[in-house]
Amino acid sequence: MCQQCEETIADVWSKLQVGQTFKTPDLYRGVDFHISKKDSNKLKISPQEVSINKAAFVAAVHYLRANDHDMDSPCEIRSSNSRSTAGPLCIATRDQINNVRCVTYILPILQKSVVVGVNPVRPNSTWLLRW
Ligand SMILES: [Zn+2]
After folding, report:
1. Residues having C-beta closer than 5 Å to ion ligand 1
2. Where are the alpha helices (DSSP H) in 69-102?
3. I need a labelling partner for 77 at 20 to 30 A (CA). Which of 35, 118, 126, 128 fits?
4. How far is the CA of 28 from the centre of ligand 1 (A)?
């Protein structure tokens, strides 16, 4: 991880609030979720009851930045419950939280913070807005 990505997420983190609502990225199968708990190092997402640490958010931004995924070169999200079919962005984030799939929660939060863009049409893709 690098300092730049840590700083991006520190800024996002300071503005997140319990109760904020989001929708997972897929246009047809997107589901609603909200932040039900927040501390200095992790969030809890409900009603899915998934805890996501800050490192997973940093990993997402870092992956997009390291691989030059800007608007002209979006990254397919390729989220999957199965690690063997998950794409590299999904893997990079779940590696931070004991292999729990979390990229579909991380991206809408980063999107609302204007850090990434998300294309909800399949194949769903994302790209970094804030370099
Ligand atoms: Zn980085």
Report:
1. 2, 5, 62
2. 88-94
3. 35
4. 32
pLDDT at position 131? 78
C-alpha span between 75 and 73 (Å, rounded) = 7
Ligand 1 centre distance from Cα of residue 6 (Å): 7
The number of residues making up the chain comes to: 131
Check if the beta carbon of residue 129 is closer than 8 Å to that of residue 115: yes
Structure tokens at 120: 């909800």
- Here the tokens at position 94 are 């779940």
pTM above 0.90, yes or no: yes
pLDDT tens, 29-81? 999 999 999 999 999 999 999 999 999 999 999 999 999 999 999 999 999 99
- Quickly state the pLDDT bin for 130 (edges 50, 70, 90): confident
Structure tokens at 67: 């691989």
Q: Can you give the pLDDT at residue 1?
A: 63
CB burial string 71-94: b at 16+ within 10 A, e below: eeebbbbbbeeeeeebeebbbbbb
